[in-house]
Write a structure and sequence with these properties.
Residues 129-261 form the GGDEF domain. Residues 270-523 form the EAL domain. Pfam families: EAL, GGDEF, PAS_3. This is GGDEF and EAL domain-containing protein. This protein is of the alpha/beta class and 523 residues long. It folds into three domains: 5-99, PAS domain (Beta-Lactamase, 2-Layer Sandwich), CATH 3.30.450; 110-259, Alpha-Beta Plaits; 281-522, Alpha-Beta Barrel (TIM Barrel), CATH 3.20.20.450. The chain contains 20 helices and 23 strands. The strands form five sheets. An eight-stranded mixed beta barrel has the order 14-15-17-18-19-20-21-22, surrounded by five helices. The longest helix has 22 residues, at 261-282. The radius of gyration is 31 Å and the shape is elongated. The protein starts with 5 loop residues before the first strand and ends with a helix. The structure holds ligand C2E and calcium ion (CA) (2 copies).
Length: 523
Amino acid sequence: MKTNTFRYPKAMVEEFELPGEVVENAAAVWGARVHDLDKKAFLESNQEITDGRTDCHSVEYRAKNRKGEWVWMRCRGHLERDEAGEPTLFAGIITNLGKKNKIDHLTGLFNKFEFEEEIERLISTKPDQPIGIMILGMDEFKRINDLYNRSFGDEVIRITSQKIQTFLPPDATVYRMDGDEFGIILRNGTVHGLKNIYGKIYQAVNHQQEFNGKKFYCTLSAGCTLYPLDGRTYLDLIKYAGYSLEYAKNKGKNQIAFFSEEILIGKTRQLDLTELLRESVEQGFESFEVYYQLQVNADTRKIKGAEALARWKCEKYGQVPPDQFIPILEESGLIIPVGKWIFEQALGACARWIKEDPDFVISVNLSYVQLEDAGFIDFMEQAVLSSGVPPANVVVEMTESYIASNINRIEGIFDRIRSFGMKIAMDDFGTGYSSLGILKKIPADIVKIDRIFVKDVQTSHFDLTFIKFIVELCHDVGIEVCLEGVETEGEYEAVKPHDVDFIQGYLFGKPVPESTFEEQNFS
Ligand code: C2E
Ligand code: CA
Ligand code: CA
């Protein structure tokens, strides 16, 4: 103690990257690794010893290890004094309690370990008392991180956590779970009680918010389970709450869902399909097929090209619609191999068809997951080059909603695709709730107006005006327009005067297998 020299064990030197086993200015070196929130307790305990107020050191705190992770430490030490009462030797044990700390640093809330422990504790101590469990997930949190940056995202999490706390009744506690999720435990929980809590939180976040002069939207979805009704163990309850949250998000976000039989069946089917799809991919894309749907020039009704559309079937569920299996492929990452396979299939077919019709254009859908895969653009370029199809005969389709919510990131991708010579279509236009300004910010080569605007075109003045207006706007800036979903002559007659460039709809052809498409159009 007189020289302020400490000796640390080897394991500690390694884990915390100390200068060596013998450290001279130990308090400073070790103190620098202690978490800010715990420094006070740590320093106070040291000071007590130095001041001679106590000879026992007993404190718990977090320290940062060499990987930058916070590790909980428990220090127990004892001070020896000389005849004069001066401190001579301080010795003790530091126990590494691991990373299982209790408090989330960002929000100051208890973390998920405490959430789990509290539920386990309630179940074991008061098995007859119902518990309401809610997992709250921030809707499109990724978008906030992308829009600004991670530290702004962190602030949004903090602000949201405060809002949630404000509206909690005394018998409820909120916890920070992983990432953008919060957990709420409502003791004596009922459906009504949980709905009440959600209702207040909903009111608080369901509008534009502002922080540091930056505006943002961040609504919350909720998935709920009740003990003992839905499950009797922590693991079941948390799993079902997670399913319910996923369900709420899939239903359009910004809403609450309670666990139900329907949710369980849907999820079981989804897990089942995931496995079947995986098998199918492993077996060389067996059971996958690419169909082609004709696109025609709107005025001449002559062939313009085709959109490649994925199909998949299995013995158990038969033909599964792409609206169901594409999201599963996206979530599982399988869309990466499957998307490549579809792209190659489509190019292969196109290579043959352009021999008959050099202007034939093949359109392929790209999922957001593919666009976030760093190597995907390289792959596309390679595939196009080796297929022999001129890049100008290839259109990639991305949905308006994806483009709109990723404007910053997507610009570079657009530039690369364009400079290679391929074209970009903005798919499902009119359904993404983006402003028309998007056409100025991120100009596509083609805009595909969604078929919801065609459905009632013969009766809805709005729909017809919308189409007319978009066509005019696009043509003024050199964007071509494709109208999707024309099913009848009546619809065709209604839209024809408005000068759309291309039409894709059942009137001219349904999606069909490659060989059928070839027979129908090239023989
Ligand atoms: P999408 O890209 O908007 O594709 C057009 C959808 O509209 C196709 O549905 C097509 O069959 C349908 N359709 C076209 N004309 C008509 C019509 O006149 N009436 C009606 N009622 N429907 C019409 P499909 O094939 O079921 O595909 C649904 C969605 O699944 C696609 O919408 C696309 O988002 C996705 N998808 C399909 N294939 C792929 C793919 O290879 N990759 C990716 N990422 N997504 C795909
Ligand atoms: Ca499409
Ligand atoms: Ca579409």
